[in-house]
Design a protein that fits this description.
alpha+beta, about 30% helix, 4 helices, 8 strands, about 160 residues
């Protein structure tokens, strides 16, 4: 089910459920924006296990971005989020978070958790502006290169 949403300067945007047939588009964005992108198998397995993915498309049905979450009891864990390169810096990241938080509240969740690379300064600023607070660090969590890993900042947003 799609829901038309207000304009953020990119034209009308629409959220819809991430489905297996969307994964070619998702993978193309994933590979453009992430240092270590997820594989098709990662996305497929997540969808099979009931994790919730949402796509954000523009009026021409181009994929602007997406998020994938996992619910555990009364918490939503943000597993993956991305805004395609041409749409970055235009409010699409905040728009994705609005959709995520709206869905979490509709499910009566009490908080959203996420991890973010310490080097991903733009994402850290977005999350902080949105109201997420740092609650911990995971040492050597993310791969950078063979034998090199970087820390993750663990953040939460109380709903």
């Amino acid at each position: 089910m799609s829901k038309n949403l207000h304009d953020i300067g990119l034209g009308p945007l629409t959220f819809s459920a991430m489905l297996e047939q969307d994964l070619d588009d998702v993978l193309a964005v994933e590979q453009r924006v992430h240092i270590h992108p997820w594989t098709r198998g990662n996305f497929s397995d997540s969808l099979v296990h009931g994790h919730i993915g949402q796509l954000l498309r523009d009026a021409q049905q181009r994929l602007v971005g997406y998020f994938l979450t996992m619910s555990i009891v009364d918490e939503v864990h943000l597993l993956d989020i991305a805004v395609d390169t041409p749409y970055q810096g235009q409010g699409a990241g905040k728009y994705l978070l609005d959709g995520l938080v709206s869905a979490a509240r509709a499910q009566q969740m009490r908080l959203v958790l996420l991890e973010v690379r310490v080097s991903n300064i733009a994402a850290i600023h977005l999350y902080r502006r949105y109201g997420f607070g740092e609650i911990g660090r995971r040492k050597h969590y993310y791969p950078v290169a063979p034998g090199i890993r970087e820390d993750a900042i663990v953040m939460q947003l109380l709903l």
